[in-house]
Write a structure and sequence with these properties.
four-stranded antiparallel β-sheet; 11 strands; globular
Amino acid sequence: VQLQASGGGLVQAGDSLRLSCVASGPTWVTFVGYHMGWFRRAPGKEREFVARFRSGGKTYYADSVKGRFTIFRDNAKSTVYLQMDSLKPEDTAVYYCAADIHNRLAFIPDYWGQGTQVTVSS
């Protein structure tokens, strides 16, 4: 499984961005069963959880992004998205997508994407 993340960029506070993560390797039928997630690493900080979308439809968000970010997926395209609205400078980070191919409740990543940079200026 290879994960290709894209969509990052430089925006101003209050703007929106949509990140995409395409999974190549599995068929879309197999992708349906994956638990997909987004994480981020800000400068000088450890990687942290942002959002995840479990197979079956359940979504989870970090408190810091709840109400501003939305994770959704297009299984036919083997793609998971992260819609980020009302961006803040503290959202500046490298964003990574990840896949738990066993759809575990606790989300244990089996694969990681390469990361895409999001920079929010004040």
